[in-house]
Structures are given as C-alpha cells and as structure tokens.
Amino acid sequence: MLEDYLLESYGQALVPRKLKGSPGAEMDYLIVAGMGGSGIVGRYLKVAVEGTWGKPVIPVDSCPVFVPKKGRFGLIAVSYSGSTYETVEQFRELSPYASAAAVVTGGGELSELAQSTGAKVLKVGGAPAPRFGFPQMLSATFSLFGWMTGESAVLDLLGDAAARIAGWAKAGEPEDHVDRLNEFVMTRLPVIYAADHLSPVGYRWKTQLNENPKLSSFFSSLPEANHNEVNSSNTGALGAIFLMSNNYSRCTRASAEAHMRVAKVTKYVESVDEKDFLTEMLKLTLIGDLFSLRMAQRLGVDALGTPLIDDLKAHLGKILKKQS
Prior knowledge:
By secondary structure, the protein is α/β, with parallel strands linked by helices. It has two domains: 2-164, Rossmann fold (3-Layer(aba) Sandwich); 172-299, Rossmann fold. It has eleven helices and nine strands. It has helices at residues 2-12, 36-53, 85-94, 108-117, 134-149, 153-170, 173-185, 199-211, 250-262, 277-299, 307-323; strands at 29-34, 57-60, 73-79, 100-105, 120-123, 189-195, 218-222, 238-243, 266-270. 46% of the residues are buried. The model has no long low-confidence stretch (mean pLDDT 92).
C-alpha cells in the first residue's frame, strides 16, 4: 500500500548520506533547480540552512532565462525522473558557470548530462511515483549541500529528525490527524495557510492534494494573505486549514489568529507538538501526504496516475519541437 510505503520511507529514506571528497568550492549562494514533487526539496533546504549558513539558497522552478549567473554559486538540480524539461535546461544553462554542480535523479537525460560535465550524481529510485520519492530526494539534497559547503550540522539535524519521525509514525500518531482532516474536508474546497518555516509544508500539502486525489486546493502564505485574500474569504464552500506552530513568532501567531477571527469560512487548525523546527516540518509533511492518499481512496481516484500532466508534457514537447 502507498500509505505503508510512505510511513516506512519517512523514517528510513530520510537518513542523510555522508559524502567524501568535498569540492572545496567558494560560493556566494546556492541554486536548487527542480519542478513539482522534485522541486519542493529546495524550499525545505532553504528554510533549514539559510539562517546558519548565512548565504542565500535560491529554489528555482522556472525556465532558464529567469535565473542569475552572477557571482560564485553552487548548483543542485533535482529531477526524480531525470527527464523534466525545465530542470534539464536549467542544468544545461547554469552548470558551466557554477563553482560546484550536482544532481539528484533516478537517471535519464539529466544523469547523462551531469556525468558528461563531471558533476556529482546522487541516484534515487524505487518510489511508486516521483512525488513519493520526496524523503529520498530531500536526504540526497541535504547530503549534497553538506558535501558542497562543508556544513555538516544540517546532516545531523536531518538524521535526528528521521529517527524521531520513525518512532512517531510507528506509534500510529499520524492516523488521528488524518482522520480528523478527512472529516473536515468532506465537501469543502481546501485552502492551506502557513507561515515562516511551515510555508514549504503548506505548499506541499496543496500539490499533494492536486496530484493524488486530483482535488482543487490552494495555498496562501501568512501574513501576506491578511492584506488581500482575507477580503474574499466569504464562502462556505471553502475549508481553511491553518498549519500552526509553537515556533512561530509572536507577530506571526497574531497574524494567523486575526485571520481566523475575520475570515468567514469554515476553519481547521493543524499542528504537532514539536520544538525542533525540521522535525515539525517533516511530521506535518507526512500528515499531508497521508491525508492526500486517504482523500484519493475516499473519492475512488487513482492516486498514482497523472494523465493531464502526461498529456501536458506531450504537448510541451510538440510545441518546443515546432519552435526549434
């Protein structure tokens, strides 16, 4: 079952790899390129390391023209399939200028391109679909960051989080969260609200609900939503899910609570009691993943298939071929 696979992978596959032979490259910032379920790992890395590393981490999910090539930078490209057009092109465009380059992939064109340029390759694989390889890709990306920068503390942080999540999942803790969420959503259109370190988690929830149960859902960041979106929160068709944290600042918590008081929609608060911010992020991510699978089961939807994405990629290839 997909749920069993997830529960197991969030404990085992999150364990980081300690890589040898650091490139010792000087860099002023790091670019993490990726799309969809592969690209989300860059957002998690940014939250985890930017404050302690002291240099920018730039997650990129666009076509190459929008990416800077100034200064000294490291590059990590993430594509589970190895065939994501935008990520392959980002790597092709950026790797010649990078102080150090690496990829996380299951193979494909990205792997071949990386090997031809001498970039380091960390292989991932075995997941039922690329988005279910999130723990593997996160572990590999964190490992490459440590290898590139020499910042090994983040590997210990992830290793500790993996151990704690494994015990938490084995005890069946996520189940109560998932059952309550399913009961809440029922006939409502979910809108996920999160802030600060939980913003990547909220975005992950949104994408998992889009891909697994094929459910329209949306993500908004707080406090930004207080200055625009709250003005339109006036329909019972919406179900607002607030990802809350004891680690939020006083200002952030006040912003979320004010939004909940004013918005005229049905509301639900989700949280876990966790002081370590990375463990908190990953526990909530696992809850969101399981929630999306349970929704797919309830709606009778094939969680693995993504026919419209496959169709879109076919059209993209034809359009690009005509333009070349």
